[in-house]
Task: structure prediction
Amino acid sequence: MRLLDRYLLVEWLKALGLALGATLAVLLLEDMYSNLSDLLADGAHGTHVLTYYWTLLPGFLPAVMPMSQLVSLLFVAGNLHRNHEITAMRAAGLSLWRIARPWWVGGAVLAALLGWLDATVVPASIEQARQFREQLHRDMERRTKPATKVGLVGQLTYENAPAHRRWFINQYSTDTQRATGVSIYQLDDQGNDQSYLLASEGYYDTAKGHWVLLKGEEIKFDKEGKAYADIPFEHDKEEFVELKEDPALMLTLRQKPDDLSMDEISGALAQSSSTHNGSLDSFAVQYYAFLIKPLICLLVVGLAIPLAVAGVRTSPMVGASKAVGLFFAYYVVQGTCTHLGNQHYLPAMIAAGLPIALMLGLSVWLFKREA
Result:
């Protein structure tokens, strides 16, 4: 590595470390402002709080790394401008691509690091932090509520499109793994009611892989949609081997994709591949977004450097403002494409990849313009 490359890389790494630390601190303070009171209300002590945030901290890295990279690059470019060093490099015959070479390499390393974090460290951080909070909340409920009221989730719904089956569960206990008020609607190919299964209680037998319903009945309908039979269960407890829908999947699909780890999303997509329903589109978009996210570290270099250099002719703040504006414009485009993907207007892969493809194309054009 040449002396110039080492100099540019070291200056950037120092700024990156400061920006990363400051951004992480701000994110932690924001989370504490939003969630610390809930932790304390659930009976958390000082050790619990420290454990929770220590577990959660790695999960913040993918969110803060691109912004920290952008701030650090703009800071370094501003220093180089004030010292007329970029002007000297250009006067010496160095192209913009050559000047930015150590930052491109650094961006590629950050992209690889971000991909590794999303595949290994971050899923464990997100899942363990959430499980820690849920366990803390359940422990508080066990101390203050009857056993039947612990870990209740209300209004659980699920649609198994290939099997033409819809589920409605009034309440599901994550503590006892029991459902109350179970309604299962069997539809024909045209979406008309064929039968209802109604049960006061039910549970998913994990060993056998199907549902067991208690104290229920089956209501059948004719082609005109009129009920013609009301058949009580022969026994208080009936096993239904055709009902293989896992409540764990139902609980996962109830959450926002943004709150889940890559492992949880890929697991939900794999588990529900044979029971696809419309709510899975948002999970598919988020899954592809996870895969494409590391490229944002290259996008940051592509936007920040040419605009910072262009700002040398006027003011470095002009270029920095443009770079920040384009970076936020990327998130606007990303949010729009994500919404279109969630609403089935765009395929999941295109909804996730189109924003970064457009902005990377723009960054290449900016580099060529300033080279």
